[in-house]
Amino acid sequence: MKARLVALALLTTAVGTAPAVAQVDSCPGDMAGPATRATVEYVSGGRAIRALHYVPGRPNGRALVLLHGAGGLRQDAPVFDPHLLQLAARGWHVLAPAYYDALDPPERRTSRDLRVWRRVAHDGAGWLRRRPGMEAGRVAVMGYSLGGFLAVEAAMEEPVWSAGIAVAAGLDVGEPLRDRRGTPLLLIHAERDPVISPVSTRQWAGGLERRGAAVRVHELVWSGHFFDRATWCGIFSETTAFLDAAMPDAAP
Question: What CATH number is attached to the domain comprising 150?
C-alpha cells in the first residue's frame, strides 16, 4: 500500500515517470492479469491535464474515463486505484484525469467550469482512442460525486461515449443539460446520503429518461457519501457487469 500511495503522489510532482507494476487483489473475485499504471499528460482547452493511465497487457478494445470527486484526484486516486488496475487486468484502458488542471481555482463553481471539465473528459476519450488495441466507439465514462454528474452529462452531450456511470451524484451539484441521447446510464447512490440527496439522484434519473437515456438506478443499503472498501468492491462489481453488457467484449 505504501508503494501505491507513493506512485499516486507523483501527480503532485513530475509527470512521465516509468510505469509502476501493481497487484490486482483488492476484492473477492478479482482476476490476475498484466496491468500497469503510468502518469501521463494530454491537452484540453490549451491546458496540460495530468492523469493516471492504467494500461492493459492484453487490450480488449474498450476504455473508460474515470472522473474524481470534488476533493480532487489526489484524494480519490488511492480509493480507485486497485479497482482501475483490475479493469486494466481485464483488458481495459483506463484514464483518470486531474480535470481541475483545466482551470485556475475558481472562487465558486459556475456552469462554465462544468463545461470546461466535461471537455477534459471528452478530450480524454480522444486520447484513449489512440491507444494500442482500441476499437472505435467503445469508450465509457464514469465518475464519483461531482465527477459522476460530469460523467453522465458528458455521456449525454456527445456521441463519443458508449455508456455513462455516476456514483453518489445528483442535481445537488449542477444544472442538467438539454441534450437528448439514448445512452445506457447507471446511477448508483446510497439510500441515505447527507451530501447528495437521494431525491436529487432520482429526479435526475427521471429527467435523463425523458431526454431519451436508458437509465438504471441502483440504491445501496448505506448511510453516507463516502464508502468503505467492501462497498467499493460491490460498486465496481456492479459497474463492471453494466459495462460488459453495454459494451460486450469483442475480443475472440
Answer: 3.40.50.1820
Task: Assign 17 a pLDDT band (cuts: 50, 70, 90).
Answer: very low
Sign of CA dihedral 167, 223, 9, 240: negative
The answer as to whether 62 is a domain residue is yes
Mean pLDDT of 76-87: 95
Rounded Cα–Cα distance for residues 102 and 44 (Å): 7
230 lies in a domain? yes
- Give me the pLDDT at residue 31, please: 83
Q: Among candidates 22, 5, 88, which has minimal Cα distance to 53?
A: 88
Domain containing residue 104: 2-169+226-246
Q: Does residue 80 fall inside a structural domain?
A: yes
How many structural domains is the chain composed of? 1
Is 179 among the domain residues? no
Answer yes or no: is pLDDT of 222 > 70.
Answer: yes
Question: Three-state SS across the chain?
Answer: CHHHHHHHHHHHCCCCCCCEECCCCCCCCCCCCCEEEEEEEEEECCEEEEEEEEEECCCCCCEEEEECCCCCHHHHHHHHHHHHHHHHHCCCEEEEECHHHHCCCCCCCCHHHHHHHHHHHHHHHHHHHCCCCCCCCCEEEEEECHHHHHHHHHHHHCCCCCEEEEECCCHHHCCCCCCCCCCEEEEEEEEECCCCCHHHHHHHHHHHHHCCCEEEEEEEEEECCCCCHHHHHHHHHHHHHHHHHHCCCCCC
